[in-house]
Amino acid sequence: MIERFLTSIYVTTTFLLAALAGLFTGAGLIIAIGPQNIYVIRQGISGGYVLPVIAVCVVSDIVLISAGTVGLGAVVSAHPGIVSVAKIVGGLYLVVLGGFAARRAWRPTASSTTNDDPSRNRGLWAALGTALALTWLNPHTYLDTVLTLGSIANSHADAKWAFTVGACVASIVWFLALGFGAKKMAPMFSSVRAWRILDSVIAVVMVGLGVSLIAMS
To answer: Name one GO molecular function term (predicted).
Structure first.
């Protein structure tokens, strides 16, 4: 009886520690300035489709983290050509998005003075499509989420899924905080000048990330 109790405590502790490791490791990789996070912030500030976009980002992360745990990372690392192509395609896409942001900063439209966003005008599917593209066309997604988290998860052996759950929880908490936190900042962006500053920052980050990805391909 005592031996079974001690074994139960050991197993519970092992899984709890693995889950906490997943939570903090996932947060460390997810919390960064990147195209996906910037898009969520802009959706939140503009009053766009915040919750659906957050859902796309979270579900995508859960799928990718789980894929890394089951071994997709080994497949990706065995075919470096795939990563190179993804860097070029993703880099070009980010440069284009950066160009759009630069155009908005240079010539703001009337919607810049309201809680409105171009993707909102195009509809829900356009917003979701952009979120999907920013997630799945970003090669860093595969390097960080699939390869890194997948490798660390598998180092926890029987507790690998506890690590995976922890990493997924980090994604859920982060994107909810990011999206709805940005929504609270909406009153600060009631002027054209504020939107021009935001779009200028977005343009610099997007183009910079895009060029760096292409250079590394």
So the answer is: amino acid transmembrane transporter activity
Name the residue ranges covered by the structural domains of the chain.
2-216
Encoded tokens for 92: 């070009």
Which residue type does 208 have?
Answer: G
Please determine, for residue 201, whether its predicted confidence score (pLDDT) is greater than 60. yes
Compute the distance between CA of residue 182 and CA of residue 87 in angstroms, rounded to an integer. Answer: 29
- The single residue listed with the structure tokens 């709890």 is 16
Buried b (16+ CB within 10 A) or exposed e, 114-146: eeebbbbeeeeeebbebbebbbebbbbbbbbbb
Phi, psi of 70 (to 5 degrees): -85, 0
Predicted TM-score (pTM) of the model is 0.75
Dihedral angle over CA of 201, 215, 118, 199, nearest 10:
10
Rounded Cα gap, residues 20 and 129, in angstroms? 32
Q: Which of 7-11, 107-111, 115-119, 202-206 has the highest mean pLDDT?
A: 202-206
Q: How far is CA 34 from the centre of its chain?
A: 7
Q: Are 19 and 162 in contact (CB under 8 A)?
A: yes
| Residue in 215, 217, 216, 212 with CA at minimum distance from that of residue 98 | 212
What's the rounded Cα separation, in Å, for the pair 179 and 31? 13
Do the Cβ atoms of 104 and 195 come closer than 8 Å?
yes
Amino acid letter for position 24: F
Q: How far does CA 96 lie from the centroid of its chain? A: 19
